[in-house]
Structure prediction request, 279 residues.
Amino acid sequence: MMSSEDVKKETRRLDLGPYRGEVGAQYDDPLFVAAIAHPEEIWARPDAELLLDKRNRVGTVRVLLSSGLSRGIVVKEFSSRGIIRLKSLVQPSKAARAWQGALALNERGLGTASPGAYLEKRSRGLVELSFFFAARIENADEIRGLFRSLPAADLEPLLSALAAFLSQCHDRGILHRDLSDGNILVRKDDSGRAVFYLLDTNRVRVRKKLGGFRRSKNLIRLGVPPAFQRDFLRSYFGPKPLRKAHWFWYRMNKVVFTGYVGLKKKLRLRQIARFLRIQ
Prediction:
């Protein structure tokens, strides 16, 4: 694992007109910096592919480097309005948090998209726009689709490998506050082993220690099929027997969370929050 000092040495501050941010050593290339210097114009590029356009925008572009090689880059534009914008007076932008979260994962040897850079534009201390740039992970699948499509014989080893990966994340102090199916990618390496990558790294937090109950609760957003949930938790806790208290805590929070999500959809709370510009 890399030390925090090594990570800091491999980044450089950026000052691009109204935008401030950082760039990683692997992407500290004049052509890459020039390509992201006006991030709000990226979506007009002919090669830009918009993948999501809701509260935030997510898309991909290809950037030519000085070496003559090109890299696929995922761009995430974070909106800043309402309460979120007010919070930016005292908090880093979402793009800055995505950057910090990705560096924290790299530092601990955990899988995520290689962070390229982040930029933010502020006015009177408030964030107006912020962008996070990371490498596109090729030949990888969201685990969400695999949960639904894989037969039991293939799903069981995937869940076992996922449980081991997430246990390792927690052991190393990583708490992802939106640990859902859409934020984990998986691909097979040359030996056929499953390799996992955490996305949405602005939701990553670093903690000194995570207890069993907090760990269990952190897993409830994952759409593990009900028939596999107990075995998934057994695999997560490893050689230690699964405590009844941890299983009860997981199931109770799972039921509450599922009910909350259903109620939120029924009442359209997210649409109301957007209309009132508080989210």
Remarks:
- The chain has a mean pLDDT of 92.
- The domain at 141-265 is CATH 1.10.510 (Transferase(Phosphotransferase); domain 1).
- The chain has two domains: 4-135, 141-265.
